[in-house]
Amino acid sequence: MTGIAARRHAVLGAGTAGLFLVVPLFGFDEYWIYILTIGFYYAILASSWSLLVGYVGRISFAHVAMSGIGAYTSVLVNGMLGWPLILSIPLAGVVTGLVGLVIGRLCLQLHGAYLGLTTIAFSEIVRITITAEHEFTRGSLGISTTGLFETIDRVPYYYSFLALLLACLLLMWLVLRSRIGLFFAAIREDEDAAASLGVKIVRWKIFAFTFSSILAGLAGGFYAHFVQLVAPSMMSIQEMGFVLSMAVVGGFQNIFTAALGGIFLEGLLEALRGIGEWRLALFAVVVILILRYAPNGLFGAILQWLVPPKGKR
Amino acid sequence: MDPLALVEQVINGLIISIFYALAALGLSIIFGVLKIVNFAHGELYMLGGFVYFVVTSVLGLPPVVALILAFAALFLIGMTIERLLIDPVYQGKVERVDEYAIMITFGLAILLQNLMLSIFGPWTKRPEAIFHGRVEIGQLIIGGDRLAAAGIGLVVIGFVLYLLRYTWAGKAMRAVSQDRETASVVGVNAKLTGTLAFGLGSALAGTAGALIGPVFLVYPTMGVIPAIKAYVIVVLGGLGSIPGAIVGALILGQVENLLTVLIPDTTRALAYKDAYGLLLLILVLVLRPQGLFGEKVRRS
């Protein structure tokens, strides 16, 4: 990438982050601050999912299950063992990291549709188990839990989630710009060739799965203490469909555009509440059209227009 | 355990297996020819249920007409979907083929579900049954509606097997399943065969939905669980294998019904009913990805 393009990207990124930093200062409705905060949660899920799909070429339908495992871990450990949130939320990341490690190890040889089916099955088993074991989880009723803050003010939550999102994006960006990012690309393009050139494909495939699971688990842990309720519905296939749509609409080839897709779609979902389920049908049409005709997504296309890639100037 | 109850469970398992086999057969044909897993299969099944509902309950036509229309409508819908969304894969118009095929059919599933939710609402509907009354064999009593539906399902399965074995189109589908390029070399129109295969697969899903609609009710999310069962079955039998789909359906029907009866704590057994198959799916994929009847590939 040329120096000019890199600088433009940096300016765009900083500008967007700055915009979200000042949003609460302009007296927006509490309600929209709340919606944007949820949008940040989805942005973390969409971007960490696109890390796996867009960069390593591994599809997973277990991402919202990871977030759910994180949420339940933190809520149960906090509620039943009395651990403070400062310990229970990081534990959520540790637990989902371990789950991701095991799933990543088991699915090492699986690809494409086979991987999709395995992760869907895993996700549904988690959801069914949590619903069935109602002595611990209160089944589909869900568990209410404590909030991150004493106050009912939305603004602290807004900034916490924005900080978490920026931290996750920074971490992913650092990993992706290092040699690991190149290993990912090599695995995505041709696993056998990558292996023959000395890329430890086993290690990096498992690492990618674990890493993205940790981020999803942390997001889930924070989210549980933001909405102060966890229920099995947060890991439904429908919810996975949301995350997938957000990443695709934003652009799943790039973690930043996928994150913007999460915020954008969550906002749109609320803005179009008046048309009921039609909005979801509409989103699905948009997802199909984007996949077919603009695989870089909405924000990917805007980015390409603002900063033309090398050779197309 | 009471032998009569056991026989009843086995027969129920067999009846369920026939519906499972119909849906799984469609999935397997599509995978065989096009090498993609149709993640919208449950929604095509659901559309079949709705066609049946509209034709019998809204238009007031007899169930037989509704079944034929469900088959025909889903055949057309399936062919249209294939031409618009799947065929571009084979014309080299799509990058990242694997992810594209999964995500586009998943998106289609979201679309169809919410479309029907918007039009018909989330409420369950009970369309006119194919056959009223019940059948008594000694002390054994089986609902006539599900027995008739299973009987018709069996005939449809037989018809499809005949089609695949003896007709030109069926031979073309099997040829393209084995090797797309060689099939093209010897004069098979692979593009048309792909479209027909997706149409036939969709029509089978739709027929299964139409047959089961009067028994298990019709609603926008009715296809989610049966689709997952169909995935379990085709993975168990080997993706793309026709006998595998049928044997897999027989196994799953029995496993589910017997496990639910054999586990003493009934509420828990029922709550986990849908999980057994999923566990089976993960085990098969991790230990033997080619399934019982599939051909071994080096990397799946």
How would you sum up this structure in a few lines?
Chain A has 313 residues and is mainly α. Chain A has 14 helices and two strands; from the N terminus they run H-H-H-H-H-H-E-H-H-H-H-E-H-H-H-H.
In the predicted model, the low-confidence regions of chain A spanning at least 5 consecutive residues are none
- Secondary structure class of chain B reads mainly alpha
| Tally of helical segments of chain B | 12
Helix content of chain B: over 70%
Please give the domain count of chain A: 1
Say how many strands of chain A there are.
Answer: 2
Q: How does the helix and strand content of chain A classify structurally?
A: mainly alpha
H/E element order of chain B? HHHHEEHHHHHHHH
Beta-strand content of chain B? under 5%
Second rung of CATH, namely the architecture of chain A: Orthogonal Bundle
Round the mean pLDDT of chain B to the nearest integer and report it: 85
Q: Name the biggest interface.
A: A-B, 43 and 46 residues
Report on this model:
The complex is a heterodimer of chains A (313) and B (300). Chain A is mainly α. Chain A has a single domain (3-306), classed as ABC transporter involved in vitamin B12 uptake, BtuC (Orthogonal Bundle), CATH 1.10.3470. Helices cover 75% and strands 1% of the residues of chain A. A two-stranded antiparallel ribbon of chain A has the order 1-2. Chain A starts with a helix and ends in a 7-residue tail after the last helix. In chain A, 51% of the residues are buried. By secondary structure, chain B is mainly alpha-helical. Chain B has a single domain (3-287), classed as Orthogonal Bundle (ABC transporter involved in vitamin B12 uptake, BtuC). Helices cover 75% and strands 3% of the residues of chain B. In chain B, strands 1-2 form a two-stranded antiparallel ribbon. The longest helix of chain B has 32 residues, at 3-34. The radius of gyration of chain B is 19 Å and the shape is globular. The interface between A and B is large, with 43 and 46 residues.
